[in-house]
Specification:
832 residues; 24% strand; elongated
Length: 832
């Protein structure tokens, strides 16, 4: 009975251990899946929000690139970007213009008469809501107009909340977002404001930004539509995903705003907190939180799941119930066997103390052995069989005893039974056994099926008669186990082959290192990227041997990354110098063949079974083409597409640097504003192609006539600006201007044509004519305008103070020649 109790206790403990282990495994799998989902949701939401902000920045750049943006340009830019198709959730893109109280009548009249898009104009346009205000922020452009008519003409400054959001954008110079608000379109949404400043005005200080403030670019976002593709659908969601607006990142006052729900997606019936159950908030282990900075506001992204007690799952409970049942069965069996043994002992004592005890022990040994035991006479007839042998072959005792051994063996092996009973040398006809001899054989069960056995034969003498003992062991389970082992080994080999195929054929370079950065493996793509062969690098060099000193520091920071703990945002615990997990960095690779290529690197830590970092996996790819495209975009952004000269943006940047340098060195510089004479007749008579060649020839002559330290830029149309970076005396600027006028006056040979143009020049000196790039440009423009009014192609008129041209009275003549005035400038010329 002690054995039965011990079996029951041991089995119960083993069942409890299996139950807890299975529940822990299920909980671990659920946590890993939950973590992957929450990280993916946060990444998708951040990318979608950034796409919307990038779009609004593009509209802001449209106003930065030009001093005046028309309604048709705004409308064309919106359609070219295919905003309604590519940016779901963006209800409208609007431009709100700052209008003083004195400008209101003229502004409203101009909008009503604007027929650039609507043939009938906007006869009903007026600023709303009505009321006296010193300044208005009026929604002037709205795309699309359909569905957003209530916002057209809205004065943003009339509402305190919208006015505060606009002032934050104006003062910060950055995009600013609102919390969830009730829109004029009768929907709940978000407002994002980006400031627009006067073209060329300084914005370095708060006062400068307020003085240069011109208006706002506004984006009206619908969170539900915006995040529809980034969140699970309501019918399929296993988790709750809730985005909450936590208020401003840097609030002006100490009072924190109450969090406002932005959007939530979940199976409402699966999570008690969503059904409204009191005190049913998700537990700590069932929640994941991330914080996202969204245009000056903090968004909290929380992912929750319904609480599941994995100890009550079917599989752990099945293990527990099955284990306890088997333990109870074994205990009962042990108790039964113990009881039978006790009864056998009592029976043996009753019959005969010694004989019965000996027979009982012999019978117990004979029938309790795991192997089957058969006794045979020298002819191969079965004399006895224990219970194990009867169970192995499936025959009852009366069917087996007295029958030949061929009943249990197939015809082939049975015919060779005599091999076990060979005659001994010198004693013909007398069989002899081979003790200890064991051989694998095929045996036959009572149902006729064949199965493998291991058969051993031993000799014994009973009452002077030679007999044999056969020990039989069933090998069916052993062979099945061997087959399972072979199948598992085959599966492991297939998995290894698959991993090797993925490693060898991956398009990106895969570099495996040890914990110190030493190279352990390279795939073919890595060999091509590094310009080396794997045998020459593996185990001999580190990944840092391919990098410069600065890039090596970046790589070391990437190798110091650690998995972020729960609740951490982009910061690896225990490694303050490391980069966040999954950070992508651009490094320059010094190839073994002498080349040097830029590459994008992402490094992930590899962990052993104990959780320690055992190495790193670096994924890299060549970004040469991507950098080339970036350089091309920079060229297009800062240079004129026709002449290749710097454009206005490049000129203003270079001019501001020159002013800073001249101020520091107490030097002077000059700016020449050039407007070509007789260009419009050439353009009209010979076509734009000839006009473009004339402009290119003018650009070439100006560059050839200047020093390398000076700069010539094209502002648009037939307007050019020359920056003389250093002047030894006041007359140097006039000498250079005379030289340029002579150069431009020389005839131009354009194909078979001989053309001649002149130039009107205005000059502004630093610091007499201004201290900023904008002031110098305006002064030079005003000086050129005076030259134009004086009769063109005269000596440049220097301007010592910023001037603006006098606006002529309505109806007064403005031209002094066929090529003067605004008609001489193409539509692309900037408005003055």
């Amino acid at each position: 009975m002690a054995l039965a109790a011990g079996l029951l206790l041991a089995g119960s403990l083993a069942s409890l251990w299996a139950w807890q282990t299975a529940a822990g495994y299920l909980a671990q799998q659920a946590d890993e899946e939950f973590d992957r989902f929450s990280e993916l949701s946060f990444s998708n939401i951040g990318q979608r929000i950034q796409h919307q902000l990038d779009l609004l920045s593009g509209f802001q750049a449209l106003f930065r690139a030009s001093s005046e943006v028309t309604r048709s340009e705004f409308h064309s830019f919106y359609n070219e970007l295919r905003v309604q198709v590519r940016f779901p959730g963006l209800l409208a893109v609007q431009y709100a213009q700052r209008v003083s109280a004195a400008q209101v009548p003229g502004f409203e009249a101009a909008v009503r008469a604007d027929r650039s898009i609507a043939p009938a104009g906007y006869p009903a346009f007026q600023i709303h809501p009505p009321g006296p205000r010193d300044h208005h922020l009026v929604v002037t452009f709205s795309e699309p107009m359909r569905g957003n008519e209530p916002a057209f003409g809205l004065d943003i400054s009339a509402d305190a909340g919208r006015r505060a959001l606009a002032e934050r954008a104006r003062d910060s110079g950055q995009a600013q977002a609102s919390g969830p608000v009730q829109l004029l379109q009768q929907r709940t949404g978000l407002l994002v404001r980006l400031p627009i400043y006067r073209h060329g005005a300084p914005t370095d200080t708060l006062d400068a930004r307020r003085a240069a403030f011109q208006g706002l670019i506004s984006g009206v976002l619908l969170p539900e539509d915006l995040l529809r593709d980034t969140l699970p659908s309501r019918g399929e969601a296993r988790y709750q995903v809730q985005v909450t607006d936590s208020g401003l990142i840097d609030p002006d006052d100490a009072a924190a705003a109450a969090p406002a729900n932005v959007v939530a997606r979940s199976q409402a019936d699966a999570i008690p907190a969503l059904r409204g159950d009191a005190g049913a908030a998700p537990q700590v282990q069932d929640r994941r939180q991330h914080t996202l900075a969204m245009a000056g506001r903090a968004w909290t992204i929380e992912v929750a799941r319904p609480h599941v007690d994995h100890r009550r799952a079917a599989f752990p409970l099945l293990l527990l119930g099955g284990g306890l049942s088997i333990s109870l069965l074994l205990a009962l069996l042990a108790a039964r066997l113990s009881l039978l043994q006790h009864r056998a002992q009592q029976l043996a004592l009753a019959m005969s103390q010694q004989a019965r005890a000996s027979a009982a022990r012999l019978d117990a040994v004979f029938n309790s052995t795991v192997d089957g035991i058969l006794t045979l006479d020298h002819h191969g007839t079965v004399l006895s069989a224990n219970r194990a042998a009867l169970a192995i072959f499936g025959h009852p005792a009366e069917r087996l005893l007295g029958h030949p051994l061929s009943l249990l063996m197939p015809l082939g092996p049975a015919a060779r039974v005599s091999q076990w009973l060979e005659p001994a040398p010198g004693t013909p006809g007398e069989p002899v056994a081979h003790p200890g001899r064991r051989q694998p054989r095929q045996a036959r069960r009572a149902d006729g099926s064949l199965f493998p056995i291991d058969l051993g034969v031993s000799e014994m003498m009973v009452d002077g008669q030679r007999q044999y003992v056969g020990l039989v062991r069933d090998l069916s389970e052993a062979e099945a186990a061997q087959a399972r082992i072979a199948a598992a080994a085959q599966a492991l080999r297939a998995a290894d082959e698959l991993r090797e195929a993925v490693f060898q054929h991956a398009a990106f370079a895969l570099i495996v290192t040890d914990a110190q950065g030493g190279i352990q493996a390279l795939n073919p793509a890595a060999e091509r990227l590094l310009g080396c062969q794997a045998p020459a690098e593996v185990g001999r060099h580190s990944l840092g041997s391919f990098l410069d000193r600065n890039d090596l520091h970046t790589l070391q920071a990437m190798l110091q990354q650690r998995p972020a703990p729960a609740g951490a945002q982009g910061r690896s615990a225990g490694a303050p110098a490391g980069l966040p997990r999954g950070t992508e960095r651009s490094l320059h690779i010094n190839r073994r063949d002498g080349g040097r290529v830029p590459a994008s690197f992402t490094v992930s830590a590899l962990h052993d079974s104990s959780g320690a970092v055992s190495g790193f996996l670096a994924i890299a790819y060549d970004i040469t083409e991507r950098q080339r495209l970036a350089d091309q975009l920079a060229q297009l952004a800062y240079h004129d597409g026709l002449t290749g000269l710097p454009n206005r943006l490049r000129l203003e940047d270079h001019l501001q640097q020159a002013i800073t340098r001249a101020s520091r060195r107490h030097e002077a510089l000059a700016l020449l504003f050039i407007d070509l004479d007789r260009f419009k007749p050439i353009n009209d008579s010979h076509g734009h192609a000839v006009g473009d060649q004339v402009l290119c020839e003018v650009a070439r002559r100006l560059q050839a006539a200047l020093r390398s330290a000076d700069m010539v830029a094209r502002l648009g149309g037939d307007e050019f600006v020359v920056l003389l970076s250093t002047l030894a005396n006041d007359q140097d600027g006039l000498l250079v201007a005379d030289k340029l006028m002579l150069v431009l006056a020389e005839p131009m040979h354009i194909g078979a044509l001989v053309l001649q143009v002149g130039a009107s020049m205005g000059m502004a000196r630093y610091p007499e004519a201004g201290n900023t790039a904008g002031e110098l440009l305006r002064s030079a423009d005003a000086a050129m305008y005076q030259v134009k009014q004086a009769g063109r192609s005269t000596q440049p008129l220097p301007s010592l103070r910023p001037r603006r041209p006098v606006t002529p009275a309505p109806g007064a003549p403005t031209d002094q020649g066929p090529d003067q005035g605004p008609d001489n400038r193409p539509d692309t010329a900037p408005h003055r």
